[in-house]
Structures are given as C-alpha cells and as structure tokens.
Design goal:
PduO-typ; Cobalamin adenosyltransferase; mainly alpha; EC 2.5.1.-; ATP binding; 193 residues
Length: 193
C-alpha cells in the first residue's frame, strides 16, 4: 500500500464509492467492501475484549490476531495481493490445540454467556463467522486466496475456545464454568442421577 492517509475526511466517498488499496474504486455495498467491513468490525470487537482483564498469554495471542486481521483486511482491499500467510492459519491451529487441551469436555451446548470477557469473546466468534460468510460470498464472484477464509474459520473456533478459557480465568471474580443450555435431555439426565 503505497498511499497512506494524511486526512480522514476526503469527501471522495460522497458518491457512494470507496477506494481500494490498488487505487480502483467500487460501490460501498460491493461484496469486497462488505467483507473488509466485517473484518474491521471483528478487529474492533477484539479491541474491546482487549480492554478487559485477560490472562497474559490470551492477551498476547489476541494482539497478534489483531495484526493478522489487519493483514487480512489489507489483502481484501488489494485484489490479487497476498498479505496473510499460511503460517497465520497454522498459528491459530496451534493455539486452538493448546487451549482446547486444557478444557474439560463439553457436556452440552453452551450459551454465549458467563464473564464479561467470555461474552465479548463470543461476540468476536459470531462476527468472525459473519466475516467468513462475507469472504465466501466474495469468493463466489471474484478470486480470493484461501487463507483469509481459513483464518476466519479457525478464528471463530478459537474464540469459542477462548470464551471457555475466560469463563474459568476468574479474573473478575465471577467465572468458573461454561453456562450450559438447559435442554430437555440435560434435565432428564440430571433428574436420573
């Protein structure tokens, strides 16, 4: 990206278009712009999560993810360029394996709830899924590298796992466990004990 913003209010988007990183202009409702916006929103939600008390390894992981999401957004803004490396997807796989290994097996579906940090992680999870859908929609019409889609898919899974980790971290004095969905099956199982 050769051009850096020197002013924010350029008024060039007043006609309903926006500039991409390669200098081309597209409509603001273009699938590429929608995908870029969803990735940007996800990164902003991660910023809100980072404002919470977090275990240092989780904080470090999330800061790294923010940088990779910026690469992902940059790649989306420059058709034909590659900024997100396969190593970024591998790093999420490794983080998933590490954090998931420390968690108890799920007994039932869990609700997106618990501590504030865990709840924010669930919001990040759902926004990551939306961003993934936007990238898939874009890829149905234009060439898109595989890494952005894969990264968002893994990131959504990781945010689910991190929500479970954060519910157990007890950094706000409230955590302890997942918030389980009270299904009829679970009620029967509990009644049978």
């Amino acid at each position: 990206m050769g051009n850096r913003l020197t002013q924010i209010a350029t008024r060039t988007g007043d006609d309903g278009t926006t500039g991409l990183g390669d200098g081309s202009r597209v409509a603001k409702d273009h699938l590429r712009v929608q995908a870029m916006g969803d990735v940007d929103e996800l990164n902003s939600h991660l910023g809100v999560l980072l404002a919470e008390p977090l275990p240092p390894p989780v904080r470090e992981l999330l800061v790294g993810i923010q940088h990779e999401l910026f690469n992902l957004g940059g790649e989306l803004s420059m058709p034909g360029h590659t900024l997100l490396k396969d190593a970024a997807v591998l790093a999420l796989d490794e983080a998933l394996a590490e954090h998931n290994a420390a968690l108890p097996r799920l007994k039932e579906f869990i609700l997106p709830a618990g501590t504030r940090a865990a709840s924010l992680a669930h919001v990040c999870r759902t926004v990551a899924r939306r961003a993934e859908r936007a990238v898939v929609a874009l890829a149905a019409h234009e060439p898109v590298n595989a890494a952005p889609r894969q990264y968002l898919n893994r990131l959504s899974d990781l945010m689910f796992v991190l929500a479970r980790v954060l519910n157990r971290a007890r950094l706000d004095g409230l955590g302890g466990d997942d918030v389980y969905w009270r299904s009829e099956r679970l009620k029967r199982d509990e009644a049978g004990r």
